């Protein structure tokens, strides 16, 4: 019973949610079976203990007073249905318009048209005064106008206002949701080896680029549409910085026009845009990205239920180390360790603390930490090997560095979870790093003119190559001792 679905579902709830569930199950409107209520009481009591004893025999004893004659498995099934209904009611209360829309639908079915008109006007006012113009708002307005439009159409056939409003809200709902998902899935295609057919996306973009559609690209009219349009275009046209500047406008001046989940998307895509610019050689975006991360930490938007992703954690440590913010970075590493996801916590902490120690040239300590990192994820493996190569390079261990790079090359080539673009990026990295390692090793055996010529040629080739991971590091290391290239 300890591992039953209903127990796992209840165990995942916090104390307040469990109390609301208890009140829900105790309501005779939703549950009239005493045995089910007793079973829940038993589960809640045990879950409140340090060492719960949720065995079947004790559960049977707890419910037998009801004398229902139902088996324990049947009671668990009944309780699971109540838990599912409770979750649906909880979700209903968390959505701004769902209860109003469902009330209107039921009122129409009951043909209580005077009440329908009054409740409909109430929803109209709610939509008009609502802080956001997102998909949920337009969906609620569309569903109400669909109800009222056809009803009013039977009374006043020549009045098209309600039906036109229905179409307008439907179109806006479709556009904002289409753009939102297109952003997420386009990013997925760029990172992972995936592909999606977007079907009507191109006509939507053509419409928005036309005279009529361009009116929706306005922070005072449809901020969510405008915001997601520029996020999508920043993915498609990364060299056109106007799209990022528009994203930054929303971050700085119109953030409160977007609902929280859209704010999270905007912040995440803006950060990823800066990351991609840095990876393609635009080092000036490091300061911009660190500024975004500081903002995310200060406002809390970087956290998800007080959890920071291991990738944000990594990027902040990398940036803080690279920009010389050592005291701030070390404080961040330690302060946010317990906020990392539990399953990735030890790996993420060790990998990033090693990166920080490397930036301080404490190579042996960094190496000791890297030994504890397990390759549970492709990205973890990629990050670990890149750091190991740098340590070997800085310690002038040519043989070990070359062995790491060759093993890494085979790993990248054979791994099916790495996108084609990333394969090229890492393959280029391996090729140039091998050349750099060999060239540095030969420095003492070559005349200065030949060495500088080869180093200059390598530096130029690196600068002209995209995609290329760790490009800034390669560019910096391919500069001569006296600054020559």
Folded structure, characterized:
By secondary structure, this protein is mainly alpha-helical. Among the domains are: 5-94, no CATH class; 96-302, no CATH class. The chain is built from 24 helices and no strands. The chain has helices spanning 5-11, 15-26, 34-47, 56-63, 72-94, 98-109, 113-129, 135-155, 161-191, 201-208, 211-214, 223-236, 242-252, 260-279, 285-299, 310-322, 326-335, 345-359, 363-371, 378-394, 398-414, 420-442, 448-464, 471-477. Helix 12 runs antiparallel to helix 13 (242-252). Residues 481-485 have low confidence and may be disordered. It comes from Neolewinella agarilytica. This is Tetratricopeptide repeat-containing protein.
